[in-house]
Structures are given as structure tokens and as C-alpha cells.
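Q: I have 159 residues here and want to know how they pack in 3D. Can you give me a structure?
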Amino acid sequence: MDDLRELYQEVILEHVKNPRNKRTPADANRHAHGHNPICGDAVEVHLKINGQGVIEDVAFEGRGCAISVASASLMTEELMGKTEAQAKALFETFQEMCTKDDAKISKDIDEDALDRMRVLAGVRAFPMRVKCATLAWHTMSTAMAQKDEATTEQDDIGA
């Protein structure tokens, strides 16, 4: 278990040091701003979704703690090329993994994606960190719904 925890920490640190897709795409057609008022994390998520509902590009900007940045970076990698329905299933599964020991895992999510998301699922042991891990995901969901603002206070996703 300690080896696995160490591996997860290494993956998180790698995403913090070298965040993936931290940029503003010029042709994004959906975006939302997310804010965690408890700790001050802020993220902007940009999506380019084509007419068939496929995410052709996803990126983020913002500032936050290591968990928040790593989660946003990991999320952008997972969402690229997915449909809106697949993105929603990923979001719901990730939320479950971060908040419940007996999380319901969507049958539509492949094992590789689950393994990558498990890197951050350990935050459920630290309720205040759940909001850090899920902020980018809530913001992405808000952007898909074509709304502008997301906050971790809109749901009971931790303490």
C-alpha cells in the first residue's frame, strides 16, 4: 500500500510540475470559471466540442494547490476525444471515487481511465481536499452545460 501511495504522489507531483493542457485554446466554444471559496483555488476550463458532441480540445488555466492543479491536468488528458456523455460518466465516477468508499463505477469507463483517476481518489480520507480534487471537474460540467460559473459550494462534496 505504501508503494502505491508513493506512486500516486509521484504522479500528482508530475502533473503539478508539468501540467498538461494548461493554456487557452483560441477556438474553444464553451468555458466556465470555477472557484473554491474555502481555499481560494480558481480554474477556468475551456472546451471545444464539435457538432457530434465530441470534445476535440480541452484546456485549463488557473491557480490552486497541488491537488487542484494535478486534477485539472489529469482531467484534460482523460476528456480529450470523449463524447459529452462519456465526459459526464467520467465526472460522476470521479466524484463517487473521491467521496465514497463504495463508489459506483460506471460500466462505460475503461480500466485504464479508472486507474488514472484513482491517483486522486485518496482525497476522500481528507474531506477538505475533496473540493480541491473535484473543482476542475465541476467546472468542466458547468462549461458543458453552457453556464459560466461553478463553485464547490453548490454541492455537498465534502466537508
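Q: Anything worth noting?
A: Residues 127-144 form the longest helix (18 residues). The chain has a mean pLDDT of 91.
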